[in-house]
Amino acid sequence: MAKNQGKGKSGNKRARRGLTLGMSIAGVLVVAAAIGWFAYRASADLPGEKFADLGNEHIQAASDPHTPYNSEPPTSGPHLPYIAPWGIHTRPIPNELQVHNLEDGGVMVQYNCECPELVEKLRAIVRKYDKQVILAPYPTMKSRISLTAWTRQDTFEELDEKRIVRFIDAYRGIDHHKR
User: Fold this and answer.
1) Is residue 103 a contact partner of residue 77, using CB atoms and an 8 Å limit?
2) Are 145 and 111 in contact (CB under 8 A)?
């Protein structure tokens, strides 16, 4: 009889191990699903429209022939080997120059209007950032206001400070150099 009790205990240990293993696997699956759901939500909640990454090839002059950009203003692609100064500009910045700023973690805030009141409000927003944000006119774009970061763009017609700050805070400082 002692032998039968030994087998019974051994069978119980195996059953407990199987149950423990099954619970461990279920726990891992639940955690993985939760992480996946939160990662999906985080990416789904990112501001702006996503554009295909056109790479980060350097060109020597803005006039050098290169692949056309897939957005206006551009969000990635061929660019000059130096950046425009961060801050407020009163003249348009060539596409090939601003793309390098985006690669370096910058955000472009651009406008297309003769609208001194709007520009002053945009200046006040941009002044809050010591680097990696540029305000500049972009006279050929279709929208009145455009925000660009690497592979991201948001365009709109009326000032929305919360929307602008959310975009800047989401993308400013993210380096996009290929490693």
Assistant:
1) no
2) yes
